[in-house]
Amino acid sequence: MKKAKKLNIVQVISNAPDANPLPPTNQGGTEKVVYELTQELVRRGHRVSLFAARGTRTRARDIPFPKQVTGDRILGFVLRKMPRKVDIIHDHTFPSTLGRAKLPIPVVCTYHLPMKHRVSNPVYVSKRARKVMGGNRGYYVYNGINPKEYEFSERKGDYLLFMGRVLEEKGILQAIHIAERTNKKLLIAGPIKDFALYTKKIVPRIRNNPNIKYVGAVGGKRKQKLLKHAKCLLFPTLWEEPFGLVMIEAMICGTPVVALNNGAVPEVMAGFPGLVCKSVKEMIRKVQSGRFPAPRALRRYVLSRFTTAKMTDRYLKIYRRVITRRNSKTAFLRR
Q: What is the pTM of this model?
């Protein structure tokens, strides 16, 4: 059987004056996914160039963005610095800067967040996201994580965990309510993205309840420790969640996730439908019951569906399909 040709791939991620280099330390689900995908592609022998924030550490050819190159300026910079003989560009930028341009090189665009504009080869991070955002048009690839980066533990502590951006749409107030009603400890970990919400609605409840504590944005060993020893992760998301990376991060550590059934949550949690709730009241009952799947079952589930290797397999199939289609179209036009 003929071996598949190794590809020359360009990966492009959004840039901003405060953009974090890869790999991310304390936050950044998209950044983590792009980093792991890039590393795995290089490990498999593909030639990869990565456009990302200055300071990025990668096995790929690193092409750092100057701080002022943001938004639509990314297109011009990438075209000026484009390596030779590129087979495909993978655009992870929030406005799909390269995907919206008419380039001679095929472009695949992953919609990590909801976007309204259309591109030729959209990829969504769940079937639900493809249906809601793309009308079932395009591809979907589940986000994946590297199992070696996560510590597993069957020994759990006595605290509930909320890990994510401190925003109303992420369900932070609902997580606090669950902790109050169950009289359990709650650790809140994540960057504060709405300071008014934090100071007016969260701080007073923390002051009135010694069981609730904000521990800040976390990464590395501290994040690992919080995830692997939590009694459960609370994921009461209120918005049309495209994926929810922290759910699989918790489960691969052996920690159960009690979540609201918004967005792609039922899809990501398909192996454990009993943990997906229709209301906060149901979440409270589930936490109070203390009946959760075995930690090893949670880990096995993630290993079967949501690894970097599986994500990379899927993206490579899409790359080759898009390249073949472009080559066929070009050959037809040349007749």
A: 0.95
